[in-house]
Amino acid sequence: MFDKVSKFNLVNKLIAKESGFEFEREIYSFDTLSKQNRYIVYLDKYNYNLYVIKFYLKNHQLSEDKFNLLTSLNEVQNILATCLEIIILKKKQNPYASFAFLASRSENELDKETPKRFKVYSRLIKNMISPVDFEHFDNSPIGIYLLKNKLSDFDEVANTYLQMLIDVYTL
What we know:
- By secondary structure, the protein is an alpha+beta fold.
- It has a single domain, classed as Aminopeptidase (3-Layer(aba) Sandwich), CATH 3.40.630.
- Helix content is 27%, strand content 33%.
- It has helices at residues 76-93, 116-128, 154-168, and strands spanning 8-18, 21-31, 38-46, 50-57, 98-102, 134-139, 144-149.
- A seven-stranded mixed sheet has the order 1-2-3-4-5-7-6.
- Helix 1 (76-93) packs across helix 2.
- The termini are far apart.
- The model has no long low-confidence stretch (mean pLDDT 84).
């Protein structure tokens, strides 16, 4: 669908737990188009058909801060396009699925109102995902970008999603 998409593979499915919440995790991997780097993508399924997508450079897998590290490799369009293809696949499997991206702050951004990643993610996602199937919500101070499926009950689910994300993730 996008011209910057890498071929990805599902490598594992498991039950995980963070901050007292249990969820299903699918783990994907892909090589960037340059074939120089490999990324790992977590697609975590929570209640209410909410999937949270996170990724990191495989070289950072042993770091506790793997989701917060910046790479300076200029591969964000390829990474997000591939993540969005994973979203499209998951929506075909679950037509009620909604999705969230978390834009972690790097260490030098702790005092900034909006993470740099959030600005980049939100711009690219708005251009790549049409509002036909999803409503777009962003909460820049905490770095959450939510794609709420229009088949979900808007009033109840959007606030539930945001509160759940705030409870689960320390951003």
